[in-house]
Design a protein that fits this description.
Length: 344
């Protein structure tokens, strides 16, 4: 390596590893499923590039393995942000929880219905009269809604909760104990790692749906504005990198969550699926789609997942979205490229 290249590399390392200004960081407590994972790569990328510290915040991930509803952590002040799905959000509002949805982490549903790639089942309609596996009880609502789309109900199938273990899921579907599995992207990766190739038969109507949206306590919107806006801007930057430099994202994940990349092919498959779910389809990253939220509620009511619809204007609040998108795209691209060069 030439002296010039050495100096350039040293400079790049300094740029990406040392915060520009030493400062006291404000903790942002967040609760989400799979706290640090390829599934939520914007967090790992933003940490690698120092974007949270740059915004003066420090992310504190709360333990996610709990039977307590995530919304309770926002209500009691333990969490500043909680990831909720639409069913959790609407039921929480109906129960009187004073929460606001402020950012759509995913705008394509991570949930899906999967069958063996050699299966005779080609649609959810074909599952009537069979036993469908649920990775967790949370997956029942998605199965209910999917069956409703094709004119069936949850009573048309038997269900069994299988848990998250890849070998258990693989044995259940391989041995015919279940016809299909209602789960999400990490479960398809687990099955793949256990030698099972899955074909998704999710009704198209179920795919365009907000998922894992960030909810906050509506009473603390202004009190925590600076910290939450900084957090969301850093998250948006991490999301944006996947659009322009997916190899940097992959390398950050290999370093940040190595267990998910022990099998390189499985890690890359997980990332490819996660990019499709995490990168916003709206012009503003993380923007709130009131029309989508309104359109999906009759389906959730019909399936029994929620008892009645809720006026979306009572909980969708885009007060942080402009700040979350206020960053220099070219600067982020250069920083991601420099980090990758320094971390190959």
């Amino acid at each position: 390596m030439t002296i010039f290249k050495t100096l350039m590399l040293s400079t790049a390392l300094a740029v990406v590893t040392v915060p520009a200004v030493a400062q006291e960081l404000t903790p942002v407590n967040m609760i989400n499923p799979l706290p640090r994972s390829t599934n939520f790569f914007p967090l790992v990328v933003a940490e690698a590039l120092g974007y949270f510290a740059e915004e003066g915040v420090e992310v504190n991930l709360l333990p996610s393995d709990t039977s307590i509803p995530y919304v309770a952590f926002v209500q009691n002040g333990q969490a500043d942000l909680a990831m909720l799905d639409p069913v959790e959000t609407i039921n929480a509002r109906l129960a009187g929880a004073n929460i606001n949805t402020v950012y759509e982490v995913m705008q394509n549903a991570p949930e899906a219905i999967g069958v063996l790639d050699t299966s005779e089942y080609d649609s959810v309609d074909d599952l009537a009269g069979t036993t469908v596996g649920l990775v967790s009880d949370r997956d029942r609502a998605f199965l209910q809604a999917s069956l409703d789309v094709v004119g069936k109900s949850i009573d048309d199938v038997e269900t069994v909760v299988l848990g998250e273990s890849g070998p258990t899921l693989a044995a259940a579907i391989r041995d015919g104990q279940v016809s299909a599995i209602s789960g999400a992207a990490p479960d398809w990766i687990s099955l793949n790692a256990n030698g099972i190739n899955v074909r998704l038969i999710t009704p198209p109507e179920m795919l365009a749906s907000p998922a894992n949206t960030f909810a906050v306590n509506a009473d603390t919107i202004e009190e925590k504005r600076d910290a939450i806006e900084g957090f969301l801007k850093a998250w948006s930057k991490g999301m944006y990198v996947a659009s322009v430099n997916p190899e940097m994202v992959a390398q950050a994940l290999r370093k940040g969550v190595p267990a998910e990349w022990e099998n390189e092919a499985a890690g890359q498959l997980f990332l490819d699926m996660s990019i499709g779910m995490n990168v916003s389809t709206t012009e503003r990253l993380g923007d709130l789609q009131s029309d989508v939220w309104t359109a999906l509620q009759p389906r959730l009511v019909s399936s029994g997942a929620v008892p009645e619809p809720v006026d979306v204007t009572t909980f969708l609040n885009d007060t942080y979205i402009a700040a979350a998108n206020d960053f220099d795209r070219a600067e982020v691209e250069a920083e991601a490229a420099a980090w990758l060069e320094a971390n190959k």
